[in-house]
Amino acid sequence: MIELGNYNTLKILRDTSVGLFVGDGDGNDVLLPNKYVPKSYNIGDDIEIFCYLDYEERPVATTLKPYIVRNTFELLRVVEVNAYGAFMDWGLEKHLLVPFSEQRHKMLEGQWYVVFCYLDEVSFRLVASNKLDKFVDNEELTVKPLDEVAIIVTRLTDLGWEVIINNKHKGLVYTNEVFKEMAVGDRSKAYVKNIRPDNKIDISLQPIGLKSLEPAAQKIYEELLAQGGYLKLHDKSDPEDIKTELQMSKKMFKKGIGTLYRERKISIKEDGIYLVQSEE
How confident is the model at residue 278 (pLDDT cuts 50, 70, 90)? Predict the structure, then answer.
């Protein structure tokens, strides 16, 4: 089976004047146009292609790498808005449609939005949606507290940054727990801080509990090395100064310098912290 909207590893079946026909072992084939044909190949070779619909709504193969694949979320830019909806640049010749009915708010040309790409079961076309809540599920969770997860940031709310977790679930990073610049579309690793009785998930950008000591200490130690062994920060420093300098909370900072002090790597004085053990 050749999957539309995804990568497929197929065999080169035959060469024609318009390109190569590549197919699976079930008798299905698709055209790889001449402009995407590799410089050297042999009939029977395997080739990885992406399959989507051309301008005439026919399945076609390409060796281009799209910015998004079927059943995933990604940040894309709107390149055109017309009577049919918004069209997004996803790295292929034919742009990806977001119908008006799938826009949370009316999309604007030139703006960036996180969207979900899926196969419309009615039209059998690949389309995208900005109504992200339709494509996440917090009923049956596949994560638990303290798990390391992958997130993509979707929008800023009054409480904090909403994120998609592992391409499956919805979570929230509270504003007062963010110690670095964030923007819609950012991807990073994060940690499950708490799962509420209603299955809402609280996310931390920093490791939880005892796991947080070593990374915090390591970050402070590396910054000390970079700054020549001195930081104008200490346990009485303003939290905003710590956030600006190290992108961490004061609580995390105090834990980190506590670890370094116990390991005799730093001395803590009134004007800041000093490295007392050079890196071996």
Answer: very low
**What DSSP assignment string belongs to 176-220?**
GG--S---TT-EEEEEEEEE-TT--EEEESS--GGGGHHHHHHHH
pLDDT digits (tens, 9 = 90+) for 46-88: 999 999 999 988 999 999 999 999 999 999 999 999 999 999 9
Residue with tokens 């604007």: 108
For residue range 178-229, list pLDDT tens digits in order: 888 899 999 999 999 999 999 999 999 987 764 555 688 888 988 888 888 8
Residue 13 gets the label, from left (phi > 0), alpha (psi -120 to 50) or beta, of: alpha
Q: State the Cα torsion 211-212-216-218 to the nearest 10°.
A: 10
- 67 domain-assigned: no
Distance CA 75, CA 90 (A): 9
Q: Is residue 2 part of a domain?
A: no
Range of the domain at 232: 210-275
Assigned domain for 113 exists: yes
Q: Measure the CA–CA gap between 48 and 64, rounded to whole angstroms.
A: 10
The angle subtended at Cα 207 by Cα 206 and Cα 213, nearest 5°, is: 105
Structural contact between residues 219 and 246, judged by C-beta atoms closer than 8 angstroms? yes
For residue 3, give the DSSP letter: P
| 280 belongs to a structural domain | no
